[in-house]
């Protein structure tokens, strides 16, 4: 059973932090249970000092080996043969010594924890099959040892190993399953973005083909006809070439119009797209837009506000761990005020003098460039942080 993939850079999704938390949860469970339970036995002066030291060393080695193996598991790497052997041998020693001394409450901890770690590298069905086998084998070992040594509390020798397998196995497999689901969801989110880009490219290619295909076909036919008429009827050949020139000019104008329309930003479309993208990324979005005021704005300022929405959304996804965001467009005198507010902001350097916002929030160019463009049309753009909130405010005149 392996994770969907390792994540070196989570791109603002928080997946790398979740991965670390999962590792600490899994490794911490092994370390705490073995450390406290076996450690208490190791410190018992009633037991032989040499055997206590051996058991303590074996337990510590088991904890370290399990931690290393869990790290490789979370990074989607194959287990190291050396660490596998180390974990198994250390767990065997940590179990054999207490079992030989008749301590039926401690001996099963190290093998149960180690088995629970090792089965995570197996497919789901095999992992549960191995845990089921351990649920039978370990109590059987405890029972046979208790009967051989004359232990009166046979029940304790049986249920304690079973309890350890049940405590370690399902809990650790459940935590790993949570990580796998999160990694796969992040993969799906990234794939959805790539598919959206691919769909847009296909749409643009189809539009370009529709515009260029007819014109180029006619141009080719008329050019061929002009070449045939060049010697026999120069006047008709010249007329055909003038039509070719006109067709080429029409194709060029329509292509430019297509590219400009493709690049043009509309405020309504950007707000709708931002809400959709943020919701897909798990951010709760509230959009409060005065549609009448948005429609009454001149085309230039309205397009600039659309660019602000796009840039603020990009920054939110790249530079924050937001769970909530708000996009608000309301009247502001003769113009309009756009506010994009989100939580989960990360600490940033001091502002650049534009109203208290971190210049690094957009890699130093996006918002600053838009601020200059808004200044040029009598508007204003500012950004500010307050604890974990990041607020972008843009104003334009109507």
UniProtKB/TrEMBL annotation:
Keyword field: Kinase, Membrane, Transferase, Transmembrane, Transmembrane helix, Two-component regulatory system
Superkingdom, taxonomy of origin: Bacteria
Transmembrane segments: 21-43, 49-70, 82-100, 106-122, 129-150, 156-176
Record-linked InterPro entries: HATPase_C_sf (IPR036890), Sensor_HK_TwoCompSys (IPR050482), Sig_transdc_His_kin_sub3_dim/P (IPR011712)
Pfam families (UniProt xref): HisKA_3
PANTHER family in the record: NITRATE/NITRITE SENSOR PROTEIN NARX-RELATED (PTHR24421), SENSOR HISTIDINE KINASE DESK (PTHR24421:SF63)
Protein name (record): Sensor histidine kinase
């Amino acid at each position: 059973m392996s994770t969907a993939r390792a994540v070196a850079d989570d791109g603002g999704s928080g997946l790398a932090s979740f991965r670390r938390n999962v590792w600490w949860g899994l490794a911490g469970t092994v370390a705490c249970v073995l450390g406290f339970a076996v450690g208490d036995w190791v410190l018992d002066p009633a037991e032989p000092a040499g055997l206590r030291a051996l058991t303590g060393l074996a337990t510590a080695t088991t904890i370290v080996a399990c931690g290393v193996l869990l790290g490789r598991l979370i990074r989607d790497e194959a287990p190291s043969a050396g660490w596998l052997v180390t974990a198994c041998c250390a767990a065997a020693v940590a179990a054999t010594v207490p079992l030989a001394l008749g301590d039926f409450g401690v001996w099963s901890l190290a093998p149960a924890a180690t088995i629970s770690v090792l089965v995570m590298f197996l497919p789901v069905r095999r992992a549960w099959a191995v845990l089921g086998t351990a649920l039978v084998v370990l109590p059987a070992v405890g029972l046979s040892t208790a009967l051989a040594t004359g232990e009166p509390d046979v029940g304790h020798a049986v249920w304690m190993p079973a309890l350890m397998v049940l405590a370690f196995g399902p809990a650790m497999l459940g935590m790993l399953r949570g990580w796998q689901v999160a990694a796969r969801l992040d993969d799906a989110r990234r794939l959805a973005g790539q598919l959206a880009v691919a769909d847009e490219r296909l749409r643009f290619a189809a539009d370009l083909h529709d515009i260029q295909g007819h014109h180029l076909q006619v141009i080719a036919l008329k050019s061929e006809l002009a070449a045939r008429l060049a010697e026999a009827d120069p006047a008709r050949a010249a007329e055909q070439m003038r039509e070719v020139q006109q067709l080429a000019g029409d194709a060029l104008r329509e292509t430019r119009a297509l590219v400009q329309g493709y690049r043009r930003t509309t405020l309504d479309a950007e707000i709708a797209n931002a809400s959709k993208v943020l919701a897909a990324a798990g951010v709760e979005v509230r959009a409060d837009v005065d549609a009448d005021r948005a429609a009454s704005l001149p085309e230039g300022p309205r397009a600039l506000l659309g660019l602000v929405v796009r840039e603020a959304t990009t920054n939110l996804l790249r530079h924050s761990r937001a769970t909530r965001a708000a996009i608000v467009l309301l009247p502001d005198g003769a113009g309009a005020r756009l506010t994009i507010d989100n939580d989960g902001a990360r600490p940033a350097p001091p502002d650049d003098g534009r109203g208290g916002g971190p210049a690094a929030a957009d890699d130093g160019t996006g918002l600053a460039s838009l601020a200059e463009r808004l200044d040029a049309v009598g508007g204003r753009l500012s950004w500010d942080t307050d604890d974990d909130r990041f607020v972008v405010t843009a104003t334009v005149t109507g």
